[in-house]
Design goal:
- Helices cover 44% and strands 15% of the residues.
- The chain has helices at 2-8, 65-80, 82-86, 98-111, 125-130, 138-144, 153-156, 181-186, 197-211, 222-231, 249-258, 266-272, 286-296, 328-341, 344-354, 361-364, 367-375, 381-385, 399-415, 420-435; strands at 34-38, 45-49, 55-61, 88-94, 117-121, 160-161, 164-165, 168-173, 175-180, 214-217, 276-282, 300-303, 316-322.
- Helix 1 crosses helix 9.
Length: 437
């Protein structure tokens, strides 16, 4: 087992960061003397002249790097076009990770200091909708005449709560397989032929034996764990999200062959050191890994999550939502911003800038995206894999706590050599209790 762990990779425990309340947006009506533009580099506000009739909005977004650049650029574009035409100005404010943003939203809702529009990780939409924090968008969608069938079906599932739409797809993703084809070729393989779990095992072992590198580098991220479970005809949770499926033959197969435990940044370090052949991450990391490969001079490849019984993938990322405690004028302005950010043209810009999926069919089929796919074929892989995403992300309000219990169980198996059968039996009892509390 220990030799198998070295052959098949490294992994890292990823814990949800605890957010602290900071930088709450002001949901007051209009500013009459000035408005504020947030600098992506410093977060400082620069004063600009504004018309007294301008409706001021605050927009909360997550993550830095290309994602931050995209949010700031699109916000500026809105202010210069639709915003200028309709008397709306948006200030974009960075809020850290999704978890940090969600915790700040909860605190801001209680304090009545909400932003007007925010990104929201898709599995949290049901919880915020049921608690009355976010606004249903159906009336705005109907009045605007938006063709909701233009969004890919798999990306609409998590915006729906009890028949109403609470969020439009924005920066959406699936996990995909990345590989260093230079390292695989040293071992006598080509990653383009890596289609199944049998291929995965064979190539991982060969890479270690012939190059000394890791076959797979992988951390204990429940999102990718779920992808592997789906490929084995199962899933992390059952259909009604009342029990875990990890204490099963599929769960044991996945955990034994695809996971190990190490530091949280070890996967990226292994890629940078050209010490791993295969790893799994979000399609939103495509631009990052492409830049890394270009800089280091290795051949990067991308593919579907390898199949066992079937192909399949969960979806992730965020939708755009509107806060509920807004006066009507602000709701109308917030809708204009959400509509703009998720329109075809902006969807194309976001996808090319960040590597996230083009959430609209009209974007994915546009001439600009087709040209980009010709230039960057790897960018199309996640869109093609989306065909196999056929269920919504988990929305059980206790899923985050259940996920921490799952990570702790993996930790016990890999660090303390705990018996896998006994550990997963105990985990099943613990997780099922958490999901139903």
């Amino acid at each position: 087992m220990k030799n198998q762990k070295k052959i098949l990779g490294t992994a890292a425990m990823v814990c949800m960061a605890a957010g602290v309340l900071a930088g709450c947006g002001n949901s007051g009506e209009n500013k009459t003397e000035s408005s504020a533009v947030v600098s992506g580099e410093t977060g400082k506000k620069e004063e600009t002249e504004a018309d007294g009739n301008v409706t001021e909005l605050t927009y909360w977004y997550c993550w830095t790097d290309k994602i931050q650049e995209n949010n700031l650029e699109l916000t500026e574009l809105f202010n210069e076009t639709v915003g200028k035409e309709k008397g709306i100005h948006v200030t974009a404010e960075y809020q850290g990770t999704y978890d940090e943003c969600h915790q700040k939203l909860q605190a801001a809702f209680v304090a009545n200091e909400m932003p007007d529009v925010s990104v929201m990780e898709i599995s949290s939409i049901r919880r915020f909708a049921e608690n009355g924090v976010i606004e249903p968008l159906d009336s705005y969608i109907e009045a605007s005449g938006i063709d909701m069938t233009d969004f890919y079906d798999a990306l609409l599932l998590n915006g729906q709560v009890d028949g109403s739409c609470y969020g439009l797809p924005y920066l959406r993703s699936t996990p995909i397989m990345y590989y260093n084809n230079t390292l695989l070729k040293e071992a006598g393989y080509d990653g383009a032929n890596l289609k199944t779990w049998d291929d995965l095992k064979e190539m991982a072992v060969a890479v270690h034996e012939k190059t000394g590198g890791y076959g797979i580098s992988q951390y204990s991220y429940i999102w990718t764990l779920d992808a592997f479970m789906i490929e084995h005809g199962s899933s992390v949770l059952n259909d009604d999200e009342t029990a875990t499926n990890l204490n099963s033959e599929a769960g044991k197969e996945v955990i034994v062959h695809a996971f190990n435990n190490t530091e949280s940044d070890k996967v990226t370090a292994d890629v940078q050191n050209e010490d791993t052949a295969i790893w799994f991450s979000s399609t939103g990391d495509l631009t990052k890994f492409s830049s890394m490969a270009d800089e280091l001079g290795f051949e990067l490849g991308v593919g579907f999550i390898p199949m066992e019984e079937c192909y399949g993938t969960p979806t992730g990322g965020c939708n755009l939502v509107m806060m509920s405690k807004l006066p009507d004028k602000k709701k109308e302005a917030a809708w204009e911003f959400i509509r703009f950010m998720t329109d075809t043209e902006q969807t194309v810009k976001s996808s090319i800038k960040t590597g996230y999926l083009p959430a609209r069919k009209s974007a994915g089929e546009s001439e600009t995206m087709k040209a980009y796919f010709e230039e960057m074929p790897m960018a199309r892989v996640a869109l093609d894999q989306l065909t196999y995403a056929n269920r919504a992300a988990y929305s059980n309000p206790n899923y985050t706590e259940a996920g921490e219990a799952m990570k702790a169980a993996l930790d016990a198996i890999y660090i303390n050599n705990s018996d896998i059968d006994a550990t997963l039996a105990d985990l099943e009892i613990k997780v099922n209790k958490i999901l139903n509390q």
